[in-house]
Amino acid sequence: MRTPKKCYELYEILKNRIRDGILPPGTLLPRETELAGEFGVARDTLRAALREVEAEGLIRRVRGQGTFVAELDKPLTVTYLLPCADYALSSGISSYRTHSEMIFGLMQDAVKFNCKIEAVPLTADNNPDHINWKLLDSLNSDSRVIVVGSWFRAIFPLLLERRCRVGIILHDAEKTLEQLDGWQVWRMNSRGRIGLLADYLRGRGCRRIGRTRLADGPAFALEGISDIPCGGDIASIRQAVAGTHFEGLILDNAIISGIDLVCGIQRNLGLSEETEVVLADRNCFDEAVIRSCVSTFFPYQETARRMLSAIVSGRYVPCCEIINPQIQGKSI
């Protein structure tokens, strides 16, 4: 690039030609060498100017075809990726609620931002080794893509290579193989759930507090909270808390199976009715259990709307945002 000023001047010329209709929608721009020669600039200067024009959504690059003037009034497409078509159902109630709320939140604001939402399942069986890569052929630097979780890490290199505009939700303990500094990364503050519930239990007079978690899950060292690694079923949790005499118990297992909905959660766990039991993630439980307990949750609908605004409004700006949990329950 000769100078930032030269790059900016070229960006203004190209932008105005598009806005004034001199370069109408669908026009294929000349090759970079031709454009650079027309304006008397180096190719690096031209490329920098084109990146600025692209960032405003005025042009789009199509793999193997070239760079086109964008349809300014054409609705943007936001692609929401799923591991497989029935992932929300086959992976249990937690995934069902998460993805249902995400898609609902996106749909709520789709008209507001003049965009359409498409959900694309990548496999037939939820196996990352069986990704149908052809479903990703249309993605390019103008594509807006939203994903939840690092299940999709196998496609990260492709999304980075295509320079897609990506919004991704990750747990704060989730690690990824690639550096995602150029993406909009939304981190779920999982540790914050435990702090919220611990403060609630202390406010209820509980002094001896335990927290169950899956044995291979993250262990948060929080002062005054006893860590209880166990299995993901009621029988394992019941065995782990037997004889502990906790006044308050935080259930933080990712998915809990074997709950008898006829009984209260205390009876399921073999605890006295005086033991205060709270849920670290309401998405893991049936509505009957949720209504009887205090719980925390992540506001997926609100997060989806915020992500949509960030990924389609004006210039795409990489960021790292925190999704904080909220607390609910009849006693709050």
How would you portray this structure in words?
- With 332 residues, the protein is α/β, with parallel strands linked by helices.
- The protein folds into three domains: 4-69, Winged helix-like DNA-binding domain superfamily/Winged helix DNA-binding domain (Arc Repressor Mutant, subunit A, Orthogonal Bundle), CATH 1.10.10.10; 76-188 and 300-324, Response regulator (Rossmann fold), CATH 3.40.50.2300; 190-297, Rossmann fold (3-Layer(aba) Sandwich).
- The chain has helices at 4-19, 32-39, 43-55, 87-90, 93-110, 156-161, 190-203, 234-241, 265-269, 287-292, 300-312, and strands at residues 59-62, 66-69, 76-84, 115-123, 144-148, 165-171, 184-188, 209-214, 225-230, 248-251, 276-279, 294-297, 319-323, 326-328.
- It has a six-stranded parallel β-sheet, covered by helices on one side. A six-stranded mixed β-sheet has the order 9-8-10-11-12-14, sandwiched between helices.
- Helix 10 (287-292) links the parallel strand 11 and strand 12.
- Helix 1 crosses helix 3 and helix 2 (32-39) packs across helix 3.
- It starts with a helix and ends with a strand.
- The model has no long low-confidence stretch (mean pLDDT 87).
Secondary structure layout plus pairing:
Layout: H1 4-19, H2 32-39, H3 43-55, E1 59-62, E2 66-69, E3 76-84, H4 87-90, H5 93-110, E4 115-123, E5 144-148, H6 156-161, E6 165-171, E7 184-188, H7 190-203, E8 209-214, E9 225-230, H8 234-241, E10 248-251, H9 265-269, E11 276-279, H10 287-292, E12 294-297, H11 300-312, E13 319-323, E14 326-328
Parallel strand pairs: 3-4, 3-5, 5-6, 6-7, 7-13, 8-9, 8-10, 10-11, 11-12
Antiparallel strand pairs: 1-2, 12-14
